[in-house]
Design goal:
Length: 440
């Protein structure tokens, strides 16, 4: 393959002045600046993208893609018919009812406020990843715990619980997060108290305590039949599951639920499916997709990623100044050679192309070095770097690089390298042969 003479001259000018086989120091500095900028951009955008997608997957692993609720009331009646109507919408994979309330969980050592969700154990696994996240026990134990569960439970052995062994095993089941279990100091098979602010009116104990209207919170013992680990500290430390029937009984509800969880076949069209659901179900039902329910979080992550790109592109801009200075010095050093080329018939366009090619070569080599360097940094961060899960929601540093981001980074670096050649190229092209050879 034959290259134009401009390419050969550009390569020659990039080499050291007295050593034609080695690259000049200024050229190496310019290439290194571009490579460092590209590597920083690759690693940063990969971490930002990975963090966003990992967080999204954790959220969608515990929550549904769409939630259908009533705009006017807290609860929904006739939810079985509503589930059937929702399941008939295109792109809907599964739907299941749920109850959502806040309660206090209390053990022998501590107490914590959590979100209690009443679910259908048979259908919940079709909508969320609760079944995959359970690390001890089974979701089926919510309805039918094993007969030997909790035989040595210290709370059951309390003298105040005078029920026989068979009665001790009839406590309703509850599934809690691994972190929450550690906070409460309970294990699989232990029991704990669930305390609801929705209590009884006119209760004798409440009157004796002097509470308004004789109100007392409702307390019930549940047995831990499962522990789950979603990989997200926020959920593992503040979420618990019971059956819908137990939730209705505990919160003094009739046959109602808080809403319908919906799973679709493509999370990126969840907003379109939610619009179809709203138009089909009509008022007063509303359908909110996962992007709506977590809008502030994902907008903040996207904005942060864009800002990091803008800030780190400045590193490449700084490297472009090295390219400008390198080429400007080269024009001064090569004044005689440029004059000779022009005297031999080289046109201005050819001179411009020589120095433009130098900038493009510096930028291209910087990209070729920077991209693999960035990928190595990504591998190192993903393999060896860990995060405190209680601060960053997840315990490891996720890294994911999209092809579009890689093209954007490489294209930006090449474009900046090209723009940096414009002034030096123009300076070289306007030199007159007589000026460069006057003192020769």
């Amino acid at each position: 393959m034959t290259f134009p003479f401009e390419f050969h001259i550009a390569i020659r000018y990039l080499k050291a002045k007295h050593q034609t086989k080695s690259i000049s120091l200024s050229t190496l500095i310019s290439i290194g600046g571009v490579a460092v900028g590209v590597a920083a951009l690759v690693a940063t955008l990969a971490v930002m993208t990975g963090f966003k997608e990992e967080l999204r997957d954790k959220i969608l692993g515990t929550n549904s893609h769409i939630v259908v609720s009533d705009r006017t009331r807290e609860n929904i009646e006739n939810y079985d018919q509503l589930v059937e109507a929702v399941s008939g919408v295109p792109h809907v994979v599964a739907a299941t009812p749920f109850i959502f309330r806040q309660v206090l969980l209390s053990s022998e050592t501590s107490a914590f406020g959590v979100v209690l969700r009443g679910i259908d154990p048979l259908r919940e696994g079709e909508v969320t990843q609760i079944t995959q996240n359970i690390i001890e026990g089974k979701i089926d134990y919510l309805e039918s715990p094993p007969p030997d569960l909790g035989a040595q439970d210290p709370m059951s052995a309390d003298p105040s619980n005078s029920a026989d062994d068979e009665e001790k095993k009839t406590y309703p089941g509850i599934i809690i997060g691994k972190e929450l279990a550690g906070r409460l100091g309970v294990f699989w098979g232990d029991t704990l108290h669930v305390i609801s602010p929705v209590g009884k009116m006119g209760d004798s104990l409440g009157k004796a305590l002097g509470s308004p209207g004789g109100f007392t919170p409702k307390i019930r013992i549940f047995r831990v039949v499962g522990l789950f680990d979603s990989g997200m500290y926020e959920y593992d430390s503040s979420l618990a599951y019971i059956t819908i029937g137990d939730a209705q009984n505990f919160f003094n509800l009739s046959d109602v639920v808080s809403g319908i969880e919906v799973k679709v076949d493509d999370i990126f069209i969840a907003d379109q499916v939610s619009e179809i659901l709203e138009s089909k179900l009509g008022f007063p039902y509303q359908a909110r997709d996962w992007k709506q329910m977590n809008r502030n979080l994902f907008m903040a992550l996207e904005t942060e990623k864009d800002m990091m790109f803008v800030i780190l592109i400045l590193i490449i801009l700084v490297a472009s100044f090295n390219i400008v200075s390198t080429l400007t010095m080269m024009v001064v050093e090569k004044t005689r050679e440029i004059s000779i080329l022009k005297a031999m018939g080289a046109k201005r366009d050819a001179i411009v192309r020589i120095f433009m090619l130098e900038g493009v070569i510096i930028g291209g080599v910087g990209v070729l070095i920077g991209v693999p360097l960035g990928l190595i940094i990504c591998w190192f961060l993903e393999t060896f770097y860990t995060l405190p899960g209680d601060v960053y929601y997840i315990s490891h540093l996720p890294v994911k690089l999209h092809a579009f981001d890689l093209i954007l980074i490489s294209g930006s670096a090449l474009l900046i390298g090209f723009l940096a050649t414009l002034y030096p190229s123009w300076q070289a092209a306007k030199l007159e042969p007589v000026e460069g050879l006057r003192y020769e």
